[in-house]
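Predicting structure from sequence has reshaped protein science. With that in mind, we have picked out one protein's residues alongside their backbone shape tokens:
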Amino acid sequence: MNDFIDNFVIQLIESGLSSKWGILGCTDVEIREIETRFDIELPAIYKAFLRKIGDGRGTFLKRY
């Protein structure tokens, strides 16, 4: 499962859509806070995505 996310990140970087430093993931604490706030259990694949590229502080997923 994480191989898919890792390969996606590699493709983003190689394609020039983001730099290595433009992608920032969420921490486990942040993910638990989301689940607690909304009283949900996120799917494992989505948690893997959030850990790799889910935090909006990087440049990826930003509008210019």
